[in-house]
């Protein structure tokens, strides 16, 4: 197989990893909503789906075939990169399978207890960043889709070295690692705190400064996050609630538009509570100023929390507010 940029597929037979099918797609290996990925291959990340496909193929335990020479994705991220590389290099991928799966979790869900996986995900994010990357070609790229093509071609080459020894490229991950460690220390010493409401799949974060999301997500399984950081507040859904998560039951997303209206009624600052929409990848409900920037709110946590809890309990009974990422044919 060989990689082809999504915009250059031209309807030729292809396999899509971690994205939406295109014209000519013969098989989709993706955790994306309603992706059409066969149920027997589903896993939490797209990289894990590819690895499951490879294991089943080698074991001759399933009848699915690729029936295409091209593999592609419609966006760039760590999970997509790992899945693509695994399909292109199946023998190596299966040898590194546990690490690959953890890096994909770290990249997509910002959650892993594996130090090297976190560092590899941080390094990949730096390499792909148009401002911070040491790769001149990445810094020179413009808008998608050409920028994603450059990232895939370069980072497919870089990935094996990172999997083998991420310690050799400390400069690529040190800044993010230090921020993550600082947030862990804040939680440990009590300057930041978490409180869980498992029945509502909600964790409340209270801190004076923003915390690295991996520090939060490694401490809780809750996928709804209410943050009170200084004079700001936001309620957001983790990425796991957008994809087809199959490792455990997940309380569905609820459209937070009505809650935004409720908070606006009680708002005393000059801001507007806005919700990104239930279909957004990681939507948040947050107060914004007239320029769209996050703004201070008069809703302090002692007022905001009981209103949010009451609304979530009531809204869970309204089927019109529920988001479902699963394929209609899956029965889930």
Key features of this structure:
332 residues; single chain; 10 strands; 6-stranded mixed beta sheet
Question: Can you put this structure into words, describing what you see?
Answer:
It is a single chain. By secondary structure, the protein is of the alpha/beta class. It folds into 2 domains: 2-175, no CATH class; 191-330, no CATH class. Helix 9 (213-217) links the parallel strand 6 (202-207) and strand 7 (224-229). The radius of gyration is 21 Å and the shape is globular. It contains 11 helices and 10 strands. The relative contact order is 0.10. The strands form 2 sheets. It has a 6-stranded mixed sheet. A 4-stranded parallel sheet has the order 1-4-2-3.
Q: Brief overview, please?
A:
This protein has 332 residues and is an alpha/beta fold. The protein is built from 11 helices and 10 strands. It has 2 domains: 2-175, no CATH class; 191-330, no CATH class.
Strand content: 5-15%
Helical fraction equals 25-40%
How many strand elements?
10
Strand order in the sheet with the most strands: 5-6-7-8-10-9
- How many helix segments? 11
Principal-axes geometry comes out as: globular
Order of helices and strands: EEEHEHHHHHHHEEHEEHEEH
pLDDT average, as an integer?
95
Oligomer: single chain
The biggest sheet, with number of strands, parallel, antiparallel or mixed sense and barrel status, is: 6 strands, mixed
Radius of gyration: 21 Å
Produce the secondary structure layout.
Layout: E1 2-3, E2 14-17, E3 25-29, H1 46-58, E4 70-72, H2 78-88, H3 90-95, H4 97-109, H5 115-128, H6 136-139, H7 146-164, H8 170-189, E5 193-197, E6 202-207, H9 213-217, E7 224-229, E8 232-237, H10 257-265, E9 272-275, E10 284-288, H11 301-315
Parallel strand pairs: 1-4, 2-3, 2-4, 6-7
Antiparallel strand pairs: 5-6, 7-8, 8-10, 9-10
């Amino acid at each position: 197989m060989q990689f082809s940029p999504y915009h250059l597929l031209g309807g030729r037979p292809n396999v899509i990893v971690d994205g939406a099918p295109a014209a000519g797609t013969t098989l989709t290996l993706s955790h994306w909503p309603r992706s059409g990925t066969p149920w027997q291959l589903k896993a939490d990340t797209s990289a894990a789906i590819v690895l499951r496909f490879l294991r089943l193929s080698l074991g001759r335990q399933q009848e699915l075939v690729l029936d295409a020479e091209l593999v592609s994705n419609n966006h760039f991220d760590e999970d997509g990169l790992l899945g693509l590389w695994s399909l292109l290099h199946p023998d190596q991928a299966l040898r590194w399978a546990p690490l690959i799966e953890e890096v994909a979790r770290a990249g997509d869900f910002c959650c892993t207890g594996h130090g090297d996986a976190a560092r590899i995900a941080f390094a990949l994010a730096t390499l792909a960043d148009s401002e911070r990357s040491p790769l001149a070609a990445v810094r020179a790229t413009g808008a998608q889709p050409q920028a994603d093509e450059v990232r895939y071609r370069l980072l497919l080459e870089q990935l094996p070295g990172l999997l083998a020894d991420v310690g050799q490229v400390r400069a690529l991950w040190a800044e993010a690692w230090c921020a993550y460690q600082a947030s862990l220390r804040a939680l440990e010493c009590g300057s930041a705190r978490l409180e869980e409401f498992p029945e509502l799949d909600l964790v409340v974060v209270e801190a004076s400064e923003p915390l690295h999301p991996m520090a939060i997500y490694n401490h809780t399984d809750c996928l709804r996050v209410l943050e009170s950081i200084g004079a700001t507040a936001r309620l957001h859904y983790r990425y796991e609630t957008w994809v087809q998560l199959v490792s455990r039951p997940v309380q569905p997303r609820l459209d937070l538009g009505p809650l935004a209206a409720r908070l606006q009624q009680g708002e005393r600052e000059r801001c507007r509570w806005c919700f990104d929409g239930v279909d957004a990848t990681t939507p948040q409900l947050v107060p914004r100023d007239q320029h769209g920037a996050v703004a201070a709110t008069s809703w302090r946590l002692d007022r905001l929390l009981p209103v949010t809890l009451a609304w979530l309990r009531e809204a869970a009974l309204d089927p019109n507010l529920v988001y479902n990422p699963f394929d209609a044919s899956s029965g889930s």
